[in-house]
Write a structure and sequence with these properties.
Blueprint lengths: L7 H24 L7 H9 L5 H35 L11 H16 L4 H23 L8 H25 L1 H11 L8 H28 L3 H6 L4 H23 L5 H13 L3 H26 L7 H23 L1
């Protein structure tokens, strides 16, 4: 299926428009909120900082928020595209497949029973949790005579998500101190996260982005089927392991910074395919850009729905993702 942007010039033009959209959303995120500012105030905050509330909010709160949303959104978008290609499942997402839940469970376990509270430790623990839960879901989804199927993967992901959620809540009930430490993080948000949080995981995100672009061609071949890929000389097991590692890097680093945020990785690959077609490289690029745009838009909207309080950004992405999930499932049923 050809995308709406069916040649290279149109694809590059679309990326340019997306870049301008990201600039506008970044500007809106900087100036709008409980304390409204303007572009001149933003410039002055960096060129003539005077210690006012407006300047402090911009430099210490909103700039890290924008950068976190851009990086986490891109990571979740690309992770979703990788996951959908690797599993050949149009509703694959780090949330639906239990990766976010596994990462969150391991972090809560570490805070509750080990007393770990540093972000650097959170990162490695989130990686481990995402990897373990992903491996379990893949194994469960591959059981049976028919092997791995999209339906079995979804059911396995739902089971792991429910199990991890129950275990997580049980741990927090037993340890109120841990509840205070991780409750804000568990709600999923790019607000209130210092820039140091992003700096700690950015190398892993960049590694995940780079790996996805390198794997674009091998995954394109893999989509033809394992037998065809092997016939062309591809080492399919190594490609799958590398893609799985990239997904863990992107998911684990995103959860470490922003907590579990779902459905971004579900929506963006479909929009990317609609715009850019079936070439995996373009899908990864567009998924990253669209993921950043969706997360920025959700973060801005979250400030206004219950102002002066904020709605968790995970709830905002769910408002977009859940109807889209039903649309994709319904479309798949109608095509059978």
């Amino acid at each position: 299926m050809k995308g709406l942007l069916h040649n290279r010039v149109l694809k590059l033009t679309g990326l340019g428009i997306l870049f301008l959209l990201l600039l506008y959303l970044s500007y809106a995120s900087l100036v709008f909120g409980v304390i409204d500012t303007n572009w001149n105030t933003v410039i002055d905050a960096f060129t003539r900082f005077n210690g006012s509330n407006e300047h402090i909010v911009i430099t210490d709160v909103r700039v890290p928020r924008v950068l976190n949303a851009l990086a986490v959104g891109a990571s979740l978008g690309i992770a979703g595209a990788l996951l959908q290609a690797l599993t050949r499942n149009p509703v694959a997402d780090t949330e639906l497949f239990g990766l976010n839940a596994g990462a969150a469970l391991f972090v809560v376990f570490a805070v509750t029973f080990v007393g770990i509270s540093s972000l650097s430790s959170f990162t490695w623990i989130a990686f481990l949790g995402a990897a373990v839960s992903g491996l379990i879901v893949y194994m469960l989804g591959s059981l049976g005579r028919d092997g791995m199927t999209p339906v079995k993967l979804i059911l396995a992901g739902a089971a792991i998500t429910a199990l991890a959620g129950s275990a997580r809540h049980g741990m927090l009930v037993l340890n109120e101190k841990a509840l205070d430490e991780v409750l804000f993080w568990l709600s999923g948000s790019v607000g209130g996260r210092k820039l140091e949080y992003l700096q700690a995981v950015l190398p892993y995100m960049i590694a995940g982005w780079a790996a996805s672009f390198v794997l674009a061609r091998p995954i394109q071949i893999l989509l033809m089927g394992d037998d065809v890929a092997k016939g062309l000389g591809q080492r399919t097991i190594m490609v799958k392991i590398a893609a799985g590692a990239a997904i863990v890097l992107l998911c684990g680093s995103s959860v470490a910074v922003a907590g579990p945020i779902g459905f971004v990785g579900l929506v963006t690959p479909h929009l990317a395919r609609y715009l850019a077609g079936q070439r995996m490289l373009w899908i990864f690029i567009y998924s990253g850009a669209l993921g950043s745009a969706i997360l920025l838009l959700a973060d801005i909207a979250a400030r206004f729905i219950a102002m002066p309080a904020e709605v968790p950004i995970g709830a905002m992405t769910a408002l977009i993702g859940v109807p889209f999930f039903f649309y994709v499932v319904r479309k798949g049923i109608n095509q059978k």
